[in-house]
TrEMBL record:
Name of the protein in question: RNA polymerase sigma factor SigM
Gene: sigM
GO biological process: DNA-templated transcription initiation
Domain RNA polymerase sigma factor 70 region 4 type: 126-176
InterPro entries: RNA_pol_sigma-70-like (IPR039425), RNA_pol_sigma-70_dom (IPR014284), RNA_pol_sigma70_r2 (IPR007627), RNA_pol_sigma70_r4_t2 (IPR013249), RNA_pol_sigma_r2 (IPR013325), RNA_pol_sigma_r3/r4-like (IPR013324), WH-like_DNA-bd_sf (IPR036388)
Lineage, broadest ranks: Bacteria, Bacillati, Actinomycetota, Actinomycetes, Mycobacteriales
Domain RNA polymerase sigma-70 region, chain residue ranges per copy: 29-95
MF (Gene Ontology): DNA binding; sigma factor activity
A family per Pfam: Sigma70_r4_2
Amino acid sequence: MTRGDNDHRSDEQLLDAHIAGEPDAFATLIERHQTRLMAIAYRTTNCPEDAHDAYQEALLNAHCMATHYRAEAKVISWLHRIVVNACLDRIRRNKNQHTIPIPSFDILPLADPRDRTTDVDLAISVGQALDSLPADQRAAVIAVDVEGLSVLDAATRLGVPTGTIKSRCARGRLKLATLLGHLQESV
């Protein structure tokens, strides 16, 4: 059980307590949502090292910018947006470095008799196709198609109009369909 589980205050109350100077309020708030926020960082960057770095930058930004929080959205939506923005900033900074992440094969159980080569090949193909999308399209596609957010929720979290999310998803999906079209032939 974590500190966040023991504290029954709302996220908004914890953020207000942090702003008022309560030393553990921010840590309690982050502990409550750490797993979700890290998952967002992983999905957005598709690189564990970048995800961890962007996550730390996001937490620092959220800690320092807490006084700028406007209660127009839930605290978790505000934190989500800060994490996504930190990830997109990191992706932009790394744009000149063309590295290909090596997939983690420790997710494959050694005792599994089923040949998972096809699953791994598919995951690599989809991951590479997502990596080839511009960062703004990738963020929209991941928010709507991977996380299952509505267009309105994705727009709120990414801080753009719903029409922008729709067009980014449409362009991203079209490019993904082109890049992954060869997989249809094998089905």
